Amino acid sequence: MADGSNSKSKIRTVLVSQPKPEPGERSPLLDLGNRYGLRVDFRPFIEVKGVSAKDFRKSRISISDHQAIIFNSKNAIDHYFRLCEELRIEIDPENRYFCISDTIGHYLQRYTQLRKRKIVFGKGKMEDLLPQMIKHGDFSYLMPCSDALSDSFLTKSEELGLKITKAVMFQTVSSDLSDLADIKYDVLCFFSPIGIKSLFENFPDFVQNETKIAALGTQTHEAVLKRGLRLDVAAPTPEYPSLVMALEACIKKAPK
Predict the structure, then answer these.
(1) Is residue 253 within a helix (H) or strand (E), and if so which, with residue range?
(2) What is the pTM of this model?
(3) Residue 87 burial (CB count, 10 A)
(4) Per-block average pLDDT, block size 10, for the chain (256 residues)?
(5) Choices 3.50.30.40, 3.40.50.2300, 3.40.50.10090, 3.30.750.24: CATH for 33-45+177-253
């Protein structure tokens, strides 16, 4: 990937290390690009591969033994319901669902009809769910996740006496980004440490120079800094709760 070369230049191009939004799906980053006349490209830096039913059986996790399911991503929802179907598990209509955000919660409706009292929405952070989870401290919680899930949330939950089973249902691998080798972007947006890992697996000699790095989440921030990169745009912070807000502030400060 080509390095940035002019710190005095405008911010004209942004690469988002996530899949392109589906037609009709609202994208705050695209809206931001339209407001400021930016080119915003989407390209997933990681690929998701589902764990097979055969391999999942080896974990000896009984999905039906859990009364509550925690979802932190659309991938978690997709692979939970996929495995339930492949394993011929009948989903209990009394299950409760704890979702990291309303966006993830609404995505559930692709698979099941939801009743208000059966779903809890967070505000974008897993810790937002803990007060409600504590109210149902007798539940056995299942958390469908990837092999790259950080254990910090699980550790905190267990310290509070909650019973959570980590169920690896999909794996993440770096995408092939070789076609981006000669392309320069003014801003690279990252949403997980795995995205940073993919950047260096594809471009081991990457030098940041004047390319701006935008990152969401404390663990992503740490991954950026551990690689010796400069973190130019960080969220969430008290001033900028979202990456879009932080990026907009950076755009406003850039030369016109």
Answers:
(1) helix 243-253
(2) 0.71
(3) 13
(4) 54 95 88 96 95 96 96 95 96 92 89 80 88 93 90 90 96 94 95 94 95 93 96 94 95 85
(5) 3.40.50.10090
